[in-house]
User: What shape does this take?
Amino acid sequence: MLRLVFGAVGITLLCKILKGCLSQTSVMLSSVTWVTALLAGIFSGHIAQRLHFPYFWKDLFFLLKVIRYGIQLEIYKWTKRVVTVIDRFVQQAIEIPNKPFLIYEGVTYTYQDIDKRSNKVAQVFAERGTVKKGDTVALLMSNEPDFISVWFGLSKLGCSVAFLNINIKSRSVLHCFNCCGAKVLVVGADLLDTLEDILPSLQEDNILVWAMKKETSYPGVNTLIDKMEEASDKPVPAELRAITSLKSPNLYIFTSGTTGLPKAAVITHLQSLKAAAGFWAYGGSADDVIYTTLPLYHSAASLVGIGGTIEMGATCVLKKKFSASQFWSDCRKYNVTIFQYIGELCRYLCNQPKGENDKQHKVHMGVGNGLRQDVWREFHQRFGKVRMCELYGSTEGNLCFMNHIGKIGVVGRSNFIYKLLFKYVLVKYDMVRDEIVRNQRGFCESVKKGETGLLLSKINSQSPFFGYAGSKQLTENKILRDVFTKGDSYFNTGDLMAENDEDFISFKDRVGDTFRWKGENVATTEVTEILGLVDFIQEVNVYGVEVQGNEGRAGMAAIIVRPDFTFDGKKLFDLAVMDLPSYARPLFIRLQESMEMTSTLKQQKYQLVAGGFNPSTITDPIYFLDYSQKCYVPLTTSVYESIVEGQCKL
Assistant: This one.
């Protein structure tokens, strides 16, 4: 009986236990179903994101960095506690005094070394009352540590510094002083002799010339090195460099444009800070070693390169001049992780003889612009999967694109959020008429996705355009008004771009009177003015032509010879070499009997550019700049073939 009772109780308990288990199992099954559904939803969302928004996370994280940095700049504006690039350098010199800042020709200079040396520069000029806060000082120096010491020393005194292109000739140098209003020039020891013919003119204009030497035979030229050796390395008062607005001028960087002679682009502290964030935005850190072979008088090396090194507290290996044969050995020797480039630089590297250790290096990133797709792919294949980070933006422009994805062949990427922050548009441009297309109401028209158009960037408080020093007309010439509505204004980049369905932006061509060759901007009107000085030339039309295997466009000039004169290749060669930088000298001359004009009475360039320089397809006589003969000589078919095949170096 007891067995039956206990058996019945056991069965009852067992049933309850089973019921409870079943209930819990049901709950567990329900939970599992919910978790499974959630995971399935996440997985499906992930797949959908990868298929339809493949760059979502990269875009998001990159934009968060950009917005974070932008907020910091806004805080500077609101609080008036402005921290400039020179302030950041002084901070780094205090926090990491013994860390290598520059490595130049095997010699290491710490943050403290450059800080103290720049203090010496500041003390020399301060003690003599040579300059005061707000003055502009011109700097004509090659890549060397003292370029930065002088730049920073003058900045510590509250001066603006004008970087002069070391390739420009005497006539242009004098023009540069008129532009920026500088009354003091600091010139490198290796460049003083190049000023011999214009020193009297500079002195007549009451411009004080200081040479980076201990002694000199030139009368009236001051020496700086000897005085720096005797000067104190104590800092000058910090209030001298203090500013209240990020929009105050910091530098003047000269750029060639449509007006002929160099223009002094106004670089504010705001622009300097933005450029200094470039490496950091791409993921750079204090552990990186940056290799800079680009000239410091350009914004890429000075603002992005030196400024970016300071922002991260990193190290910069500075090279006086780019050397393709020494590039990778330098990278290995100094453990370089990031290098700066222009497109031509990478092509030169690819043209070097192959070696077994081509991929044996620590370089993980290249930052620059102008990298062709074919060179990009060849570079990866040859030297490994170095992340190439393209930048787009002119020195004076108010817009920047960054290819943070690393997609081959594009200069940048946009998206919905970026377009909210930075207003830009691609508008229709008539290449044949060489002018912007406007509709019946007089407004511009946007191009469709995938179509090529002229890039314009809206000018507003978010994206100001600071223009050029000197004539207001220079600034006005770069502003396009009444674009979509009456009264609006846009910065005219002069660049033809295209934006595809995935929001990737690619560079197509330049319009107007500027083209790029050997990493430099060539102003066709400046070249035209120089060539026009030759007695046998009646009219000149300068433009750029594509040369197979070369980045940018080579200079070419169509000319009309005056009646009763003949073409003199020797005379033209002598003038070009004497008065034009090497990159601006026309490589080809085309003799014409008449010059075609557009409907707006501009010289017709489109057909000439499209026609190229092939003597087999052009009936006009073509001449070639031959340095071996020191003359412009007839371009033969054999010479043409050697040029396009890469056998003849340009």
About this structure: The first helix runs from residue 2 to 52.
